[in-house]
Structures are given as C-alpha cells and as structure tokens.
Design goal:
10-stranded mixed beta sheet, 1 helix, about 45% strand, globular
Length: about 170
Amino acid sequence: MNGLKKGLLVAALQILLVCTLGAKLLYDRATRPRVWIKVATYDPELPIRGRYLAFNVEVPFEGFTVREHPEPYANPFSPDRCDLELRNGVLTAVVNPDGEFWVNSRIVEGKAVALVNSQSLYFISDHANFEWPPAHSGEELWMEATIPKSGPPRPIRLASKENGVLRPLAVN
C-alpha cells in the first residue's frame, strides 16, 4: 500500500469517527430529555478566544448546607461535588462526594440554589448581534439543553426571561 492509499484510509477513518460522534449527539438530542436552565455566564481562561459563552448552571439542590456570612461581601459559597439529575422535570444538583461537577450552594434572592460549574459552552455566530448582560436589568439568561446520561448539559438555544416569560434569542 503506497502513501496515498494510507493517507486516504486515515482520512476516511477520521471522517467516520466524526460522523459517529455527530450521530450520537443527534440521537441524544432526539431521545434524551430537554429542560430550560437558568445560567450565569463567565469568562473562562481559554488560550483560544472566539465568540463562545461559557455557562455555569443555577439549579435547585438536595443535600447541601448553605453557609450564611455576616459580612455583606464575604464569599457565601460552600464548594462541594454533585451530580445533576432530573427531578420532576427540573434539573437538580444532588450531593455526591465523588460527583462529576463542582458546585457552590448559596442563597439568591432568599432562595437556596446551586451554582454548578458545568463547562457548558455555546457558540455564537460572527454575524449575530448579541450582548449580555442586557442594557436594562431584570432579565435572566436561560438555555434549553439536552441532559445526557453523563457529562454537562448540552446547550441547544438561549432565551431571556423577564417577568416569567421566556423569549428565545436570535444568536445564530
């Protein structure tokens, strides 16, 4: 077998590998549950920059202890590990010392929530006119995501939520 045939064989194997990954992701999107999740954006320290948003998900939790701090600017976080599970159609952080995700439990607007470092990345196309946070306050950023058996939620689309109404954002 000469070099050209070997090269074509390697290229065909790589294409097959990428196609099987794409087929798995499409299968998961068709068969796995989807939920809307409140998210918080952050700027990861990645060497390659692009138009990506990185998300931490903000979800209810079970089994964590929230520590209150008397100082107003003290760090109210209690880092721990968790797994993400669907409970009655709501993504929930469940305490697990050997869990897949790091989580910080805290109180937001009088409600106990978990801020899960899920490493969910969302690509924004170059021509999209998207800025976050919005000019006026009161809006929250939400993402619709596929929940795989393991791994972080896989973002499908984004929406803003104001006064209890979700409005999908045109970012593609």
